[in-house]
Amino acid sequence: MLPLLFAACSVLPYHRPPDTTLPPPPPLPAASAAVDVSGLLSRLDSLLAVADTVDSRDRLVELRELILGAASGDPGLRAAVMRYGDRVLSIEERSRVQVIEQPGLDRPVAPAPVVEEEVVP
Predict the structure, then answer these.
(1) CA 105 centroid distance within chain
(2) Widest CA span of the chain, in angstroms?
(3) Are 61 and 48 in contact (CB under 8 A)?
(4) pTM for the full predicted model
(5) What is the pLDDT of residues 57-105, one digit of tens each?
(6) Domain extents in the chain
(7) Burial class for 36, CB neighbours closer than 10 Å (0-12, 13-18, 19+)
């Protein structure tokens, strides 16, 4: 009974046998034109200047570090980070509360939030 238990608890290797060779990795894409990060960083700085919540500020600071870290890296990675950064910044810009000036009121009024309602057939 004990040998049966040892056979059931044995470890099976999940790797390739040592006699098989791996195919060579695909070639890296040709270096693309340098990606300019100054426009993205200026948008980021303008959003950081008006960040009203700690969470928003922390997200923007982390995004800045990611962009600066990728600026000197692989061109493919840099382009992907720039697309990601552009998308995050557009979401952050869209999430800002827009203030509408109302004549005759002492303070500006924020527009009412849009609430999505589920349509039940």
Answers:
(1) 40
(2) 91
(3) yes
(4) 0.53
(5) 999 999 999 998 888 778 888 888 999 999 999 988 888 766 566 666 6
(6) 33-96
(7) exposed
* DSSP for 37-80, written as a single string: -HHHHHHHHHHHHT--SHHHHHHHHHHHHHHHHHTTS-HHHHHH
The two three-digit tokens of residue 20, written as one number: 């098989």
Buried b (16+ CB within 10 A) or exposed e, 89-98: beebeeeeee
- Cα-based distances in Å from 97 to 25, 102, 105, 107, 112: 48, 15, 18, 15, 10
Per-residue model confidence as pLDDT tens digits over 43-52:
999 999 988 8
